[in-house]
Amino acid sequence: MISDRPLRLRILLLFAALAGAVLAAILAALVIAGWRMSLSGVAATAIVDALALAALIAGLGCLGATAGIWMLFDRYLARPIEALAGGLRTGQAPEEPDTRYLADLGPAVREAAQARARAAEALSRAVEEHASELAHEKETLENILADFGAGAVMADAHGRIMFYNSAAARLLRGIALDRRLDRYISSGAIEAASARLAAGVDATDLVCLTADGERMNARMRRVDDGILLILRDRTSAAAVPRDRLEALRRHAATLVPMLDALEGPMPPELARAIQHEGRGLARETKALSELLSGKGPTGRARLVELAAGLSSDAALPNLVVLADAGEMNALLRHLDKSLRDEGLTPAFDILLEDPAEPHLCLVWSGNPVPMACLDEWLSYAPDCAQPDLSGADILAMHGTGIWSEAVSGEQARLVLPLLLAEDGHLPAGLTYDFALGKRAVAASRLSDLTCVVFDTETTGLDVTDRIVQIAGLRIAGGRLTGESFDTLVNPGREIPPGATAIHHITNEMVAEAPDVCAAVTAFHHFTAEAVLIAHNAPFDMGLLHAIRDETGVHFENPVLDTVLLSAMVWGQSADHSLDALAERLSIEIPPEARHSAMGDTIATAEIFLRLVPALEAKGIETFEDVIQRARQFRNLIADANQAAPKSG
């Protein structure tokens, strides 16, 4: 097709067709003229001579004019247009003399080509800088991992080693790339840990045997389709007088369930007192065991890790307990199998009567298991990777015990208490920003600030009200780092029902929470040297300033307010509420998270991060720019940097 031909050829064909049409018209005119001359009696010879001469002159003139015009089109239009097209494709601007007959098209194309060249150069520089930063961070992480005290081994989905550090080389003699991991570590422990990861946790602890028969502690997590193992030497525990401790533990552990079997009425107050003392005795026994052994549980585990491979009738709470996941999961699965061998069908469950000590339960329909039978089950080694470690040893290492008891509805259960981890969750993972040391000069840019976004929940809406919850998230270099702060606060007064209806925090929830002095002091430590960000910051900062005489804590951090930043982007007349900003910026706040300190903090952090590019586009690039522009919005909201009340 002609549309597939080069531009110059298409123009040539166009002019050739035009020349042919003109010649055809001239020929037709000459034929008509000769016919009319013949009708007038002119001799045929004379007609032919005259028409031939006219045809020659007209034809040559037409062809010459057409060729000349085509050459002009080709030189001053077709060739420059092809040059412009090539310039656009390659980013090279054509010379001005070649495009002077194309009016504004030539300058426009040159500007576009120059802009493309500048953009390509800027992109190339950015890619080079980013590649340099990545290479530097990679080198830094490699140096850290090379001398990392724990051994690190990474294997692919087929179990072949694709990374290890020097510590792993010391722990696993002969380790090499592209070899199977099970040549160096027993496969049973890896498979059991993989089953726990499949239960939905990010990482799990295990104890494994090396090819040399050495026992090691390890932590395993999924990395893409493979696994990452962090290995540590397993130090042997000091010998402890476990016989006496076990006898003491058993008396304490059986004290509480014996209350249900007592005959005759017992005053409720006395029953509660005995139950309380029994639990206290059990806890003190655990503390004594850990003190004598010099160690307690060496790891932390989520409940879903411990329940891997067990049937459960209900969703498990997202709690973390002090336990070695591999050992405790192996024990629970061993007990589950033992119960099933007796014809029972146990289900895993959790009792949360004591918030600090969840009780792991195996519940079945039937009678309790005799203690002698339970002791026999505990005498076996539940973990094939540790054949010398019995179930009783695992319980002793965790400073806990287990008992069987009857429950209502013709059911029975095994009960195994474990202590809740203090912070209630596992660490968020690796946190780093190697560029922080390079931002001394540029630290005042909004995108480079180190900030803490925070929110408070209170007993009311006045600065004289008390704080009941504080939450914060850290931002560095324009991204959330994963570092967080979240605590309930005992306000020292009753929480009004109206406030509870909004944030769902009850008096019972804060009864054992830190008081305002402890909570605010911890929050002040978390926010050190950071810019504070809040939605309607004068209110939250007013609360902190109002109690500084009581707490002795002075917040002198610079402050940014997302209400103020929103007004700088959309003007004062827009709706600047948290819900309106979240909807405008397509940020979803789950209904259950709204009006909780952490839920509102997450929303405020996302709002701030999305406002920064819009502010920079308006020329508001630094913290100082915000302070200067804030003066224009005094009638909307106070500047939280100037809202601190004077101490009296």
UniProtKB/TrEMBL annotation:
SMART domains: EXOIII
Annotated TM spans: 12-35, 47-73
Source species, domain of life: Bacteria
One family name in Pfam for this protein: RNase_T
Coiled coil residues, start to end: 120-147
Gene Ontology CC: one annotated term: cytosol
Catalyzed chemical reaction(s): DNA(n) + a 2'-deoxyribonucleoside 5'-triphosphate = DNA(n+1) + diphosphate
Domain Exonuclease stretches: 450-617
GO biological process: DNA replication proofreading
Keyword annotations of the record: Coiled coil, Membrane, Transmembrane, Transmembrane helix
The enzyme's E.C. designation: 2.7.7.7
An annotated Gene Ontology molecular function: DNA-directed DNA polymerase activity
Role: DNA polymerase III is a complex, multichain enzyme responsible for most of the replicative synthesis in bacteria. The epsilon subunit contain the editing function and is a proofreading 3'-5' exonuclease.
Subunit note: DNA polymerase III contains a core (composed of alpha, epsilon and theta chains) that associates with a tau subunit. This core dimerizes to form the POLIII' complex. PolIII' associates with the gamma complex (composed of gamma, delta, delta', psi and chi chains) and with the beta chain to form the complete DNA polymerase III complex.
Protein name from the UniProt record: DNA-directed DNA polymerase
Organism: Paracoccus seriniphilus
